[in-house]
Amino acid sequence: MKENNYKNILRGVIVIAFAVCLLLDNIGMFPNLPLVKIGILLILFYVFAEALKKLSFVGMTFPIGLAACLFTTELGIKNASIAVIILVSVLVGVGLELIFSKPKEKKNHFERTTTSYSEGEGTFDVDNNMGARTEYIQVKNIRRGKIDNALGKMTVYLNGSTVDPDGGFIDMDNGLGKLVVYIPKELRVSFVTDNGLGKVNIHGESSHDESLPLLTIKLDNGLGEVDIYFE
Known about the structure:
Elements: H1 3-27, H2 35-53, H3 57-70, H4 72-75, H5 82-100, E1 113-119, E2 123-128, E3 132-139, E4 144-149, E5 153-157, E6 168-174, E7 178-183, E8 188-195, E9 199-203, E10 214-221, E11 225-230
């Protein structure tokens, strides 16, 4: 069974478990158990596990912060503000990213930036952890690329890029944020999509000319929203 099938099965089991928790809580079958909180905790645990697999520190600390908000009394922090708890979890994640992540050119955590990216070797790698970021990528003969967005909003323009004659591959990963990608409609594109509890929208169509090299895009979306535009 493919990995994507295992992921979908696990997600389905978690959603069903959450639904069961809602039902049991509503009919009062286990009045001493916080069933709704337990159901939400299952979802947060899945988000944490996915972030751990990708070594996204912000993606790991954010669900921990949300879980702490659910159990403030049990954790002895009931006097703490919900907003402060979430802010602390995000800041801890950003701090860990700064400490342990390898330095990358154009990496941004807070500022709204607009940058351009051009690479002659047929590869590119851009990412955004927090805040808003816009990337203009112009790569001749794309062989391999990576677009990674965690919590912020990232907009990527691939205008002017071409695909390697032997074909190309782009790995798109969106966690809890919003990812918007503009792709030239002249390119021939195939998607392999793994969507969690988020939303994926594809606007327009790519070229259907089978004589063109194929650009395969592996799109992995967690709880965020992805918009793909062919223009």
